[in-house]
Specification:
This protein has 148 residues and is an alpha+beta fold. It has four helices and two strands, in the order ααααββ. The protein has one domain (2-112). Helix content is 64%, strand content 12%. Strands 1-2 form a two-stranded antiparallel ribbon. Strand 1 (122-130) and strand 2 form a beta hairpin. Helix 1 runs antiparallel to helix 2, helix 2 (34-67) runs antiparallel to helix 3 (78-100) and helix 3 (78-100) crosses helix 4. The chain is elongated. 1% of the residues are buried. InterPro entries: 7TM_GPCR_serpentine_rcpt_Str.
């Protein structure tokens, strides 16, 4: 029990220190473009959410399951519920990323949308001629007549 508590404390301490350093360096980054800066913030928020999910679904339940009996606190049926929460953790981890990263969210939404098809009828004719000293090229676009 003590080993688990020590491991959990060390891992949380490392996560908090590295998260704080990442926050500091992203906030003070001045040699990257605004697009890259915004992407870094989005990814940082997603990583923080991915850290919160296992904390909620794995670490906290196991902390109570391991420590409550040591102090004589009855668990009743809470341990069964917490086992189910732990089993749900991988699914929630994926849901968090899909909701927070817009590319994944848009991809998921596009799977369920009806696609619009647009018909265009355009033909291209390209004519080029090469002279000894110059190169001339031109392109002509013609719309085909549409049947009425």
């Amino acid at each position: 029990m003590l080993a688990f508590d020590v491991i959990m404390t060390i891992s949380f301490s490392i996560a908090i220190i590295l998260g704080s350093l990442t926050f500091y360096h992203i906030k003070n980054a001045d040699k990257i473009s605004s697009v890259a800066h915004n992407l870094q913030w989005k990814l940082f928020i997603a990583v923080c959410a991915q850290t919160f999910v296992p904390t909620l679904f794995v670490y906290i339940p196991y902390f109570f399951i391991i420590n409550f009996p040591f102090f004589g606190i009855p668990l009743y049926y809470v341990d069964d519920a917490w086992m189910r929460m732990t089993a749900c953790f991988p699914a929630w981890d994926a849901v968090i990323i899909i909701l927070l990263i817009s590319d994944y969210r848009n991809g998921l939404v596009s799977l369920f949308r009806k696609k619009k098809t647009v018909q265009t009828e355009v033909t291209w004719k390209a004519v080029s001629s090469i002279a000894p000293s110059t190169i001339n090229s031109s392109a002509v676009v013609e719309d085909l007549p549409r049947p009425h």
